[in-house]
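Hi, here's the filled form for the chain we discussed.

Project: internal
Contact: R.S.
Residues: 397
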Amino acid sequence: MSTLANQLVRAEKEELARAIRTLLGRPLVSAHDDPAAFDLVRKRRGPLIQWFDYFCGWRLVVEPRQGYARLVKVRSQPGTTRPARRRRTTRASFDRRRYTLLCLCAAELLTSPVTTIGMLAGRVAQAAAVEPGVPAFEPVRGEERAAFVDAVKLLEHYGALTAMDGATDAYLDDEDAKVLYRVDTTRVIRLLAAPVPPSRVTDTWRGGPPEALVAEARYGAGEPSETQRALHARHTLIRRLLDDPVVYRDELTPAQAAYAASLTGRRLLRRAAEEAGFVLEERAEGFLLVDPDGIATDSRFPDDGGHAKVAALLMLDLLVTSGPVSAARLDEEAAELLRRFPQWAKAYQSDGGGPRLAADALEVLVRFGLARRTGDRVAALPAAARYRVDCAAVQED
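And the returned structure, exactly as it came back:
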């Protein structure tokens, strides 16, 4: 009996850890897209809600009947490293116009549980016409329809919209295309993760600070208490560890650094990592959470799935072995790489392809915490050392 009880406890811990990492990689888990993952989250929703609230201050909403779970992730500082991406073949990031249409679509979808693509486009056009500072939406123009389709397809991907008849892509070529949608208005509302609704922060849309959208009352305003300051330090530190590939000590605030160095902070960091199934690497330079199963991430490195990531890995060896180099040196390395492999990365095999490839590769390295650019100089960061080529090992092989 004791052995069975231990097995059950171990199984519960493993399921909880897997569910935590699943939600970190996919903050919106749908029963339609991944029944097994949703069933796991639904099964362990109580401990999951407690875990995310205690360690991160994040809210988890699980709707068993409606078939989805939404982890409302909030960061103290808005970032641009994970933009919304178009669901069509290019997978390019959203631009300002697409974000604007996405917000207008979401607002207009709340008015009816059923709509058509033509009705939605008409409502968006009316809303844009009366909204100060928003350019008019003109569906007669092909580029406008393309931006609109990207916004609608993203809402479809999130399950806020379901095409009952027709296909959204048909609107790209025909303004009169017939597509019928069912709207999940509750899920539309759940998509917004900002603690403060944008409608209450009017200055944000007039050039004010976007930080007003992520202000959280639980940490106090003006003069927070000692307890609130400690809670803020714990939550923001663990949020960064869960969200960022690597966290360096020189990037921490004084409060976060002090918390990480305290006995309580070190104990809770280890506990959070263990309960979520991570391996915590603590170095003199910073911290790193490693997911052995690769569940908790939405992007991987190294990864041969993109030319920029391949080039980034090749350039990383130069940065590690040669120290800080100029951006022009990286441009030259990328151009030489394209000359050596003329059938590779054909999107860059044109005038200016070398600098473009170098810029995209550098963006990858910066995003993964492996390099930092200061002015015209690019330097490898300590985490890049794990990718150093061991020449002695290569020679022995």
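Let me know if anything looks off before we file it.
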